[in-house]
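User: quick one
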Amino acid sequence: MSLKYAVLAALLEGEASGYELSKVFDVSLANFWPATPQQLYRELERLAQDGLIEARVVQQERRPNKRLFTLTDAGRGELTAFAAEPTRRPTALRDELLIKIQAMDGTDPEVTRALVEERMSWARGKLARYERVRDRLLDGRTEEEYLREADRIGPYLTLMGGIAFESENVRWCERVLAILGRRVPLS
Amino acid sequence: MSLKYAVLAALLEGEASGYELSKVFDVSLANFWPATPQQLYRELERLAQDGLIEARVVQQERRPNKRLFTLTDAGRGELTAFAAEPTRRPTALRDELLIKIQAMDGTDPEVTRALVEERMSWARGKLARYERVRDRLLDGRTEEEYLREADRIGPYLTLMGGIAFESENVRWCERVLAILGRRVPLS
DNA sequence: CACACCTACTCAACAAATTGAGTATCCCAT
DNA sequence: ATGGGATACTCAATTTGTTGAGTAGGTGTG
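Assistant: Done. Structure below.
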């Protein structure tokens, strides 16, 4: 149900094709509403049928044609209505690694170390990507200036959330590695 | 696919009924693998059929009978094998509130404030519950002592993750509220 | 000049998650 | 004495999410 609004929110940034959205959902929105390309195409179809978005086909020369989608007034309306509704479920984190950590006693600690290290470097990479998005948003201004001047601060606040989340993730990994290291000194 | 292992991991704590598990999945495991009671009952059925857990029916006097499930050796084996496998997808955070924040420009800032405040007090509540679980685990010992003595540290490390996650959540809410407050001074 | 990867999707099948109702007993407070 | 909540589930329908294959031209790399 919420993917619908995630897509509408993504289209606030302007016209986009399904393919472009699938990229966006991989970098910025991926932080709080992951979706596969297939889900997006299906959702776009539905939204277009419901008149919340409009499609126009763009003929292209040396690549397949694409359909660009734009928010309609109706879509914009539904989105702002949604944004004012009370939130039903709060954060839901689904993390396979944490299941493995929960069940780690009884497995080789070195294997667990490796899993945590992999996660840590992944989180660092994501953090770096977020920081780049941040720099592009700020565009030389300080955060203060940006928040005063910008007409849309929503995307900045969610990005801030993503950055906070991933750096906490990295810190957690570091702590876990420290603890594992104390338990099983490197031989 | 992972719910299976989440359930097996939960049963490491000992025998439990579906009903009891649905409580556990609401407090501790909810942090990294949410599941509804219906999902759990179905999963338990499947796991019992596959011989990974065993059920025994306990007759009760003044309440409905219950089925208590225990890990079998096969179940324990599958779980430890899983715990050593590389993790496919990393963290996926799904947060409806962040969609609303992303789309907040164009809605009444006071409404957004209220949404964030609600989330903050919810996160504080969750944090308090985690802290209580932590105190019960530590049982008077310091973290150092616990980590040296305890034979299972997995649950402590995941709990640490939950605490880190929720306190970061609270901090994010505070920052957002501060920014909203500057933009829209309370009249 | 072969091979992999990028754009830009569609189709189909399946697995997992959500929602809502239904059953039946007991305890506690108003 | 009546209503609400807790225990302890089951059944069914629907919506979401995932996986894998297929199409088809274009670009870049060794």
